[in-house]
Amino acid sequence: DELERSYKLPEIVCQRQLTLKKLSVKPGEKILDVGCGVGFLSYDIALLTGDYGKVFGIDKNSDMILHSNKRCKKLVNTEFSTANADDLPFKEGFFDAACCTQVLLYLNDIAKVIKGIKRVLKPGGRIIIVETDWRGVVINSDYDSITRKIFSAWDATVPSPNLPAYLGPLLRKHGFSNIEVEAVPILNTEYTSSNFSYDMMKWISKNAVKKRVLDETERSKWLEDIEERERSGSYFFCVNRFLFSARI
């Protein structure tokens, strides 16, 4: 339910629309959605490929696959399966394009995933990758030391918290060209449930407590300050996602 809500946030809808634009889907194409989640992007792509094309979505979480199948049950051109991003169960040169959104930062061997995606793309095939640079977060808070602890704890949670900084050279090294990068900022000046940062602040500070770099008293103090920023009209949060497009 939380994922469903997050995918409907205006910032994420805008990101999805930009992804679709850069992917330039043509009728009849076969598209791979690596880490399809609950299937929002796969659904939108399937509308563009038409009945003669097909969208294949994979996710390592079987619950995500259930949600994706449910979302796309009225479509005849989607197929979802449980699989790992670093072990794609498709033959060489099968897809016209692939997309991968907010997946690679969680993986230890990013190069293996990129090589695997390249293997299953046709000559001239396209790839779209969207990732966040969590080390570039800007937030207005009176408690800078607590903020640093919170985001340092996130750094320790994922293998590649600043992946965009070196993703371009990594794509080039493994055979991709025509690499373009576009910033996709997520900017919130209000702390409300209709904005991206609302749940994220609660979740990421909870992660810091779990990692034992904060206690609940510090977390509560930090969140109360965030809420006071909203009341006083001084709330500010920004983080950049980056959309990479490339070809082989």
Q: What's the topology here?
A:
Blueprint: H1 2-7, H2 10-23, E1 30-34, H3 40-49, E2 54-59, H4 62-71, E3 78-82, E4 95-101, H5 110-120, E5 121-132, E6 138-139, H6 144-155, H7 164-173, E7 177-188, H8 196-210, H9 216-232, E8 237-247
Parallel strand pairs: 1-2, 1-4, 2-3, 4-5
Antiparallel strand pairs: 5-8, 6-8, 7-8
Helix pairs in contact: 6-8
Structural features:
24% strand, 8-stranded mixed beta sheet, alpha/beta, 8 strands, 9 helices, 248 residues, globular
Q: In short, what is this structure?
A:
This protein is an alpha/beta fold and 248 residues long. Helices cover 42% and strands 24% of the residues.
Write a structural description.
The protein contains 9 helices and 8 strands. The protein has helices spanning 2-7, 10-23, 40-49, 62-71, 110-120, 144-155, 164-173, 196-210, 216-232; strands at 30-34, 54-59, 78-82, 95-101, 121-132, 138-139, 177-188, 237-247. Helix 6 crosses helix 8 (196-210).
The residue fraction in helices comes out at 40-55%
Number of helices: 9
Number of strands: 8
User: Mind summarizing the main beta sheet?
Assistant: 8 strands, mixed
Low-confidence stretches: none
End-to-end distance: 37 Å
Overall shape: globular
Order of helices and strands: HHEHEHEEHEEHHEHHE
The assigned structural class equals alpha/beta
**What is the rounded Rg?**
19 Å
Q: If you average the pLDDT, what whole number results?
A: 95
Percent of residues in beta strands?
Answer: 15-25%
